[in-house]
Specification:
The chain has 175 residues and is α+β, with helices and mostly antiparallel strands. It has five helices and eight strands; from the N terminus they run αααββαβαβββββ. It has two domains: 39 residues; 125 residues, Mannose-Binding Protein A, subunit A (Mannose-Binding Protein A, Chain A, Roll), CATH 3.10.100.10. The N terminus is likely disordered. Keywords: Disulfide bond, Lectin, Membrane, Transmembrane, Transmembrane helix.
Length: 175
């Protein structure tokens, strides 16, 4: 069952049709395990974390650089948040009470944005005109890390900012 649970945690990100096809191929014994995991087994988040779909989220109570936020998340066996759907974007936007770090960055290659966990950027909710790397103004330095603006609508509240700016962050891990 533990191996099934690990496998099922991946199903959160799959097309439901793929899950049905998998069940049909691997037989009904798996159906009972899936039923147990989805409906009977308790899935929860640690105290202070909030569950959304298959992930747990934590809004930090402290502030620091992007690197400090990432390390804090890793210390909690999590990663800075990765947003991969509009629904998750709306949820995460509602969590933040101030500007907060995302796992988004273009540290390796300017203009090539990816998530801290290495996944490619598939959805984009940039504030109009962003990312702009401070319009190349040297007094602001490189803006290589992504954050959420607090007081803007969810479908356009990402901005690029210097990674040493001091913000809160949001951690994410599987439930």
């Amino acid at each position: 069952l533990i191996e099934t649970y690990s496998l099922l945690s991946l199903f959160c990100f799959l097309n439901p049709l793929s899950v049905v096809q998998y069940i049909m191929v691997h037989g009904s014994g798996l159906i009972l395990n899936i039923f147990y995991v989805l409906f009977l087994a308790e899935k929860s988040c640690p105290a202070g974390w909030t569950m959304f779909r298959c992930s747990c989220y934590l809004l930090s109570t402290q502030a620091g650089s992007w690197d400090k936020g990432r390390q804090d998340c890793r210390d909690r066996e999590a990663e800075l948040v990765t947003i991969d759907s509009y629904e998750e974007q709306v949820f995460v936007s509602a969590l933040n009470e101030k500007d907060t770090w995302l796992g988004l960055n273009d540290i390796e290659t300017e203009g090539t944005w990816k998530w801290a966990d290495g996944t490619a950027l598939t959805v984009k909710y940039w504030f109009p005109g962003e990312p702009n790397n401070a319009n190349g103004d040297p007094q602001y330095g490189e803006e290589d890390c992504g954050h959420l603006y607090h007081a803007t609508k969810a479908d356009g509240n990402w901005n690029d900012l210097r990674c040493n700016s001091i913000l809160q962050w949001i951690c994410e891990k599987m439930a």
